[in-house]
Design brief:
6 strands; globular; about 350 residues
């Protein structure tokens, strides 16, 4: 009885907590608290030396600092939370490829091959970042060029700078652990994350959300240069009939994934524009494959999907969790819908 009631009210609760009204109330509360405590506008950034998205991000931070009237600082982390990355090696391999596309899109530096994950270089790079982190707390002026230099040395497999003496191993390991604990305590698990006013913004992909918020507060130049991942979608010329005849766009789709819901609609749009066949391949949700999705990760994904949907003009928020029988029922009818040629409509309305 209780479980049935929870499932019935879940969509209404999800819609309420992800509504623009609640978001505006949260933002007003953070801004009121900031003014009451006479604090400056501050963006806190979490960087990891062997994270592809961190390297991309540090290449634009100096520009960001010039464009917005905000104080920016960073914290160095090194270890990932295992429960958040059940397939760590696979994630890193895919992240390198994804970062290559982003680097091309924004004309940023990027190596032709991924550096080997040598623990000695990772530790040395992390300690060098900690040194800059310490220096930034006691000196004025921008230090992002120094941070970018360390990342470039690591990613292009160049000799790393010498580490200054004076900080014992136990001390810098404790500093890294403290930074990682702060990240977790504030509600996140990834690097290349920016924290401002109670909300998280991930790397270049979500930088436009931070730009929009700071512009709204009158802190910036009213520009959104980091919107190319969606602003230029389907702007290039469609393929000719002969070019597209034997090509297809493959989408691996999970009915439980919020990102799959948005991805399906974007994939349909791309397939139509480029005259491609859209091949949808259903996959089981992570939980049904024995992989964990902690609540902290699930809630971030939910709220992140909401703002991405808002940006793309997609209705999202009134959702229920189909885990278990809901997933099985959906997939058991997928082949039937596919044979009727209506698999896209079926998944969009499930």
């Amino acid at each position: 009885m209780k479980e049935a009631l929870q499932k019935n009210i879940q969509p209404y609760v999800a819609r309420m907590i992800s509504s623009m009204t609640v978001l505006k109330m949260k933002r007003h509360a953070h801004e009121f608290k900031r003014r009451l405590l006479l604090q400056p506008h501050k963006v806190e950034i979490y960087l990891r030396i062997n994270d592809p998205y961190s390297y991309l991000l540090v290449q634009v931070l100096a520009e960001l600092e010039q464009r917005f009237a905000v104080a920016m600082s960073f914290k160095t982390i090194e270890k990932l939370q295992d429960e958040m990355y059940p397939e760590g090696e696979m994630w890193h391999a895919n992240a390198f490829i994804d970062a290559q596309h982003l680097a091309d899109l924004y004309q940023l530096h990027w190596p032709s091959q991924s550096p080997k994950q040598v623990s000695v270089r990772v530790r040395q790079g992390s300690r060098l970042l900690l040194q800059i982190e310490d220096r930034s707390k006691v000196t004025n002026g921008s230090y992002w060029s120094d941070v970018e230099c360390i990342f470039k040395q690591y990613w292009f497999q160049l000799p790393l700078d010498e580490i200054q003496k004076g900080l014992e191993r136990s001390a810098w390991e404790g500093r890294l652990l403290a930074n990682e604990r702060t990240l977790a305590d504030k509600g996140h698990y990834m690097s290349a994350m920016m924290f401002y006013g109670g909300e998280w913004y991930w790397g270049l992909d979500r930088l436009d959300h931070l730009e929009s918020r700071l512009n709204y507060l009158g802190l910036g130049d009213d520009q959104l240069p980091f919107n190319k991942t969606y602003n230029q979608l389907c702007h290039s010329r469609p393929l000719t009939a002969s070019d597209s005849r034997h090509k297809k766009l493959t989408l691996y789709f999970s009915i439980r994934s919020p990102y799959s819901h948005l991805g399906l609609q974007q994939a349909i749009k791309m397939a139509k524009h480029y005259r491609l066949k859209l091949d949808i391949k259903p996959v089981l949700p992570m939980v049904m494959r024995g992989l964990s999705v902690p609540k902290r990760k699930k809630m971030y994904i939910f709220h992140d999907t909401k703002r991405e949907a808002q940006k793309l003009g997609i209705d999202y928020g009134f959702v229920a969790d189909p885990l278990g029988e809901g997933v099985n029922r959906c997939y058991s009818l997928f082949k039937y819908a596919q044979n009727l040629g209506c698999e896209q409509e079926y998944l969009l309305t499930y």
